[in-house]
Design the sequence.
């Protein structure tokens, strides 16, 4: 089979190990998954009711244009529906952008490390991924700006950053956006925005309204608990959305996902209780790690980096050792964070179990 040459540079995305596989592999009765930045809470009860009611219509195609959901998102964020794109998870938006903006001879600028999908979609298009090292676990905006050239078509910027959880103030991001050329799209990936505690957390949306070359992407996977349905969205200029429409597949967001996302938006006021759960879990992990004398990176998200160097188990073996004990975390090495593990903030009981098993590895 003659595959395109670009695939030689692309490696498949490796997701967190499923709970079922860990139970089977190690003969465990229970395991806790803290590897994929998922919410410990399921969808709201009202959302589950909408999903149950939606089964009757599965013999029909979904709304191809996600009209009701796009209109609801537009009202929520004070933009026109023409500025809203909806995808099968926010990752699908990244693939679309690579199709409409990248080709051989062009570049995309991103931090290193960052969300692994950025580099994948860039390399798959035969473009160059220009990677800029982090500074103190955060995006180095000065270095990112310096890396932009006339060949740059996309700049990817996560805020809060994945995998570190570091947050950039809105004013700093706005200053950076002003330095991005008008023919280059700044993609502000805000998948974890709803967890941010800062008052300026909606600054990215302000930039979208002001600048045609800024796009904000968000998702219903995280705080809303809809990972399994895969629905995300982007706020962008009408021109970007029109380009996306030319490459997206028909009926790309299924009808249950659309219905669940629409109902979730109606329950926006209920997110405070989920933020509080995450806030309490964050404090719980900070306190527990400090008592164990284990370092970590402060976060504005629902995950954190934990320094596992200096334990009785070598750092690169810690993820496997924890998995044998029923705790699934994300190894840091594949995320370009050797010596660390990335841990999702779970329920109080899940956090306690993680701290207990980590303490056992400390000796």
Sequence:
């Amino acid at each position: 089979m003659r595959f395109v040459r670009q695939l030689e540079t692309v490696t498949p995305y490796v997701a967190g190990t499923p709970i079922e596989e860990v139970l089977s592999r190690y003969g465990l009765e229970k395991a806790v998954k803290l590897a994929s930045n998922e919410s410990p809470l399921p969808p709201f009860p009202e959302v589950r009711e909408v999903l149950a009611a939606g089964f009757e219509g599965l013999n029909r195609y979904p709304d191809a244009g996600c009209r009701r959901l796009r209109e609801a998102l537009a009202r929520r964020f004070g933009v026109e529906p023409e500025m809203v794109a909806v995808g099968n998870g926010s990752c699908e938006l990244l693939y679309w952008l690579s199709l409409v903006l990248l080709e051989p001879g062009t570049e995309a600028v991103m931090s290193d490390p960052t969300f692994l999908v950025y580099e994948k979609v860039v390399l798959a298009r035969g473009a160059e991924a220009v990677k800029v090292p982090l500074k103190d676990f955060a995006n180095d905006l000065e270095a990112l700006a310096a890396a932009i050239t006339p060949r740059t078509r996309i700049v990817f910027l996560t805020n809060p950053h994945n995998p570190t959880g570091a947050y950039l103030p809105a004013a700093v991001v706005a200053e950076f956006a002003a330095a991005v050329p008008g023919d280059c799209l700044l993609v502000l990936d805000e998948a974890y925005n709803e967890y941010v505690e800062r008052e300026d957390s909606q600054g990215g949306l302000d930039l979208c309204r002001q600048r045609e070359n800024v796009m904000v992407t968000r998702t219903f996977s995280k705080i809303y608990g809809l990972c399994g349905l895969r629905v995300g969205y982007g706020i962008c200029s009408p021109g970007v959305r029109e380009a996306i429409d030319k490459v997206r597949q028909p009926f790309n967001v299924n009808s249950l996902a659309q219905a669940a996302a629409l109902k979730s938006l109606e329950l926006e006021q209920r997110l405070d209780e989920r933020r509080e759960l995450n806030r309490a879990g964050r404090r719980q992990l900070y306190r527990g790690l400090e008592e164990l004398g284990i370092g970590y990176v402060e976060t504005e998200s629902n995950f954190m980096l934990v320094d596992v160097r200096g334990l009785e188990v070598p750092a690169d073996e810690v993820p496997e050792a924890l998995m044998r004990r029923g705790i699934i975390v994300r190894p840091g090495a594949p995320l370009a964070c050797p010596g660390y593990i990335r841990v999702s903030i779970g329920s109080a009981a899940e956090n306690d179990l993680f701290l207990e098993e980590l303490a056992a590895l400390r000796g």
